[in-house]
Amino acid sequence: MEDKVLIVEGKSDRTRIEQVLNEPVNIICTYGTLSQEKLEELILPVEHMDVYILVDADDAGENLRKQLKHELPNATHLYTDKMFGQVETTPVDYLAEVLKAYFDVK
């Protein structure tokens, strides 16, 4: 199993990131919210791994990021530019630049 985990908001974000990655990464979708059930099922089992967080540059994304910072204080936070807003609309070359410090990208 991969030892790197990338947390994103939705399936479209995952699809966009998969276009850039050149290594297997466990990508977890929160679908914008983090209930106690999701936390226990998806997030807590990966807290011992290398966890990266890439969410949208909007209010919902920032709220999710704050919650994840609390639950996963050792996670690495990655950011898209506010002008792109959402991960799924961020150009793949920009995403590659953001991800290449931590992941093998195409």
TrEMBL record:
Instruction: Output the GO biological process annotations, alphabetical, semicolon-separated.
Output: rRNA processing
Query: Where in this chain does the record put each Toprim domain?
Result: 3-87
The UniProt GO MF terms for this protein read: ribonuclease M5 activity
**InterPro entries assigned to the protein according to its UniProt record, in alphabetical order:** TOPRIM_dom
Which intervals of the chain form a coiled coil?
A: none
Q: Which SUPFAM superfamilies does the record match to this protein?
A: Toprim domain
Q: Name one Pfam family in it.
A: Toprim
The molecule here is called Toprim domain protein
